């Protein structure tokens, strides 16, 4: 691994938004954020991104392109929260598809279960409480692993990437959707203004929780850019690592294979 990547590991490990916290404390703080925001999480996503997160998630499933027929295909969605990726996966795939959501937050999982029940999908999704750093699944047990807006919250990102590699079968696919580094002149300035001024205010207005949304914005800024994150994925053992920018790099979709 390059020196730049190891420095990034250290920064990410110790950051909770703009604050530096003990590595051990970060997960607890993150869990508090999602316990507080679980019941307004979906509406806040739509409002904050003006619905864009839906297009980005569609893109993730399009890139995954799960089989449509009876071919068996098992997806693990880590940090799956309220089930946006799971729902899209079920719609896009055939009878052979199996879907597991794993998330560390019981509150987010409860929202996901409630939503799945409302939409008649409760039979199609298995919900498991677990930590991305120590997945409660056997080696090589999934055909694909997705993580959407989750990895930024995990204290030991390199450990979560190793776990992703471990649970994927040989030939399995890793896909990660995450906020990234805006790479369009002007859009970056506009995005900064929107992120630091508008998002925390929206959090206060809609969810009565400015702090969690301040964390969200700051954690995005501390996350490695597209190329550094691609290096981290390679370092965990993945091959053919690529990424594509979404909406000028506001988000990026990274892909890799366990070969
Ligand atoms: N994937 C969903 C989406 O795209 O809308 C939810 C993303 S939400 C921003 C982040 C999720 O990561 C939360 O549900 C949180 O509980 C989960 N999370 C945070 N740390 C985690 C960890 N160490 N292991 C598993 N899930 C974690």
How would you portray this structure in words?
The chain is globular. It has helices at 3-13, 23-37, 41-49, 52-64, 84-92, 106-118, 157-167, 187-207, 210-222, 226-235, and strands at 15-16, 19-20, 73-78, 97-103, 125-129, 142-148, 168-179, 239-246, 251-257. The protein has a seven-stranded mixed sheet, sandwiched between helices. The model is unreliable at 1-14 (pLDDT under 50). A hairpin with a 4-residue loop joins β8 (239-246) and β9. The protein is an alpha/beta fold. The longest helix is centred in the C-terminal third of the chain and has 21 residues, at 187-207. The chain binds S-adenosylmethionine. S-adenosylmethionine (SAM) is lined by residues 27, 30, 34, 78-81, 84-85, 103-105, 108, 131-133, 148-150, 153-154.
Spell the H/E element sequence. Answer: HEEHHHEHEHEEHEHHHEE
Main β-sheet, spatial strand arrangement: 5-4-3-6-7-9-8
The rough form would be described as globular
Structural class: alpha/beta
Strand content: 15-25%
Helix content: 40-55%
Main sheet attributes: strand count, strand direction, barrel closure: 7 strands, mixed
Number of helices: 10
* Ligand list: S-adenosylmethionine
Mean pLDDT: 90
């Amino acid at each position: 691994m390059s020196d730049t990547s190891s420095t990034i590991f250290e920064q990410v490990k110790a950051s909770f938004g703009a604050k530096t916290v003990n590595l051990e404390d970060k997960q607890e703080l993150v869990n508090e954020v999602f316990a507080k925001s679980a019941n307004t999480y979906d509406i806040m996503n739509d409002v904050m991104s003006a619905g864009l997160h839906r297009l980005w998630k569609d893109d993730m499933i399009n890139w995954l392109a799960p089989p449509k027929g009876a071919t068996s295909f098992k997806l693990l969605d880590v940090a799956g929260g309220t089930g946006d990726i799971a729902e899209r996966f079920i719609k896009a795939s055939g009878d052979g598809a199996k879907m597991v959501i794993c998330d560390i937050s019981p509150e987010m999982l409860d929202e996901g279960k409630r939503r799945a029940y409302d939409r008649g999908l409760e039979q199609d999704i298995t919900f498991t409480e677990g930590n991305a750093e120590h997945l409660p699944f056997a080696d090589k047990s999934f055909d694909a692993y997705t993580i959407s807006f989750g990895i930024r919250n995990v204290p030991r990102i390199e450990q979560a990437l190793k776990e992703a590699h471990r649970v994927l079968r040989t030939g399995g696919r890793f896909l990660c959707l995450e906020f990234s580094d805006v790479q369009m002149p002007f859009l970056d300035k506009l995005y900064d203004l929107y992120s630091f001024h508008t998002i925390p205010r929206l959090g206060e207005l809609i969810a009565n929780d400015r702090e969690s949304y301040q964390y969200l914005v700051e954690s995005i800024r501390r996350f490695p850019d597209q190329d550094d994150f691609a290096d981290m994925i390679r370092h965990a053992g993945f091959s053919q690592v690529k990424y594509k920018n979404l909406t000028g790099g506001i988000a990026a979709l990274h892909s890799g294979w366990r070969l």
